[in-house]
């Protein structure tokens, strides 16, 4: 993991000492750091991508959306940011974190993107999500306060499975989704599910801690994949770069399964 105190990095991402807090709001943790590290690892692509609208679902302390805004800030002017969270305290804490760093986002206290679907359909160029992914009893999902930060129900997939189809509706044709998953969430199955919707995927960061093994996966629309048809595993043969991407991502999965513990970018 990067040294979060180093000047070079902290000038581009949120500084922990400026991140606001509240007892009912999730503090930046290994998963938040891994997501920001994935964005940093992909920063050159993000700068070239020149997104116009970026969104975070489940912003918590605001560490991730603030980091994204700082990362793109100077070099991609005019980007707009939106962040949602079901926890009203998280929305307030994010507001303070953004302000402390001199950046701005529209903040909405809502369930994923409820009430925003029409307005944002097909407009989001970059979506970032560190969802509640911890396997818990179903009845813990959606509880108020800090429990909503991690409670993911069976296999930790309850909220993830709600987010994916919404992300598909909101992402633009060139939209990218960066999502944190845990091994128990069955990330390869998530990738296959997204592939059926026409998305390619790649692991940007894989990190194992004592408690969990995290994958930060990037999804993007691959128009060589035919969504929702029997041939949806067919890749357009006229797009060799896409074929290579797909093969590389498969090789990457296999090598991760074998090695179990590595960092990649
Ligand atoms: C693991 S925390 C991540 C917080 C922050 N993004 C980070 O990486 O540090 C998950 C966040 O998602 C929020 N959340 C949970 N369910 C949600 C939902 N259905 N819609 C929007 N936000 C949700 C929680 O309140 C919490 O702030």
TrEMBL record:
GO terms for cellular component: eRF1 methyltransferase complex; nucleus. Keywords: Methyltransferase, Nucleus, S-adenosyl-L-methionine, Transferase. The keyword Nucleus applies. Residues 53-137 form the Methyltransferase small domain. SUPFAM superfamilies: S-adenosyl-L-methionine-dependent methyltransferases (SSF53335). It comes from the Eukaryota. Pfam families: MTS (PF05175). Its main location: nucleus. It is found in: Nucleus. GO terms for biological process: methylation. GO terms for molecular function: nucleic acid binding; protein methyltransferase activity; S-adenosylmethionine-dependent methyltransferase activity. The keyword Zinc does not apply. Belongs to the eukaryotic/archaeal PrmC-related family. NCBIfam families: hemK_rel_arch. This is Methyltransferase small domain-containing protein. It comes from Acer negundo.
């Amino acid at each position: 993991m990067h040294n979060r105190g180093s000047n070079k990095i902290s000038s581009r991402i949120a500084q922990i000492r400026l991140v606001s807090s509240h007892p009912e709001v999730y503090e930046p943790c290994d998963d938040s750091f891994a997501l920001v590290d994935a964005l940093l690892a992909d920063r050159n692509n993000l700068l070239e991508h020149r997104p116009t609208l970026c969104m975070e679902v489940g912003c918590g302390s605001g560490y991730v959306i603030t980091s994204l805004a700082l990362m793109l800030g100077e070099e991609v002017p005019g980007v707009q940011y939106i962040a949602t969270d079901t926890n009203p305290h998280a929305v307030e804490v994010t507001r303070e974190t953004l302000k402390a760093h001199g950046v701005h986002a529209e903040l909405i206290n809502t369930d994923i993107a409820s009430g925003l679907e029409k307005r944002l359909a097909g407009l989001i160029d970059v979506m970032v999500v560190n969802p509640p992914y911890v396997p818990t009893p179903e009845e813990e999902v959606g509880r108020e306060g800090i429990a909503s930060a991690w409670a993911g129900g069976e296999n930790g997939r309850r909220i993830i499975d709600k987010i994916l189809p919404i992300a598909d509706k909101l992402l633009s044709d060139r939209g990218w989704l960066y999502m944190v998953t845990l091994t128990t969430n069955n990330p390869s199955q998530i990738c296959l599910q997204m592939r059926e919707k026409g998305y390619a995927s790649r692991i940007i960061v894989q990190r194992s801690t004592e408690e969990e093994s995290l994958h930060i996966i990037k999804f993007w629309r691959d128009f060589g994949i035919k969504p929702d048809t029997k041939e949806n595993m067919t890749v357009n043969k006229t797009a060799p770069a896409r074929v290579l991407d797909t093969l590389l991502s498969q090789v990457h999965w296999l090598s991760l399964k074998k090695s179990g513990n590595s960092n990649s970018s």
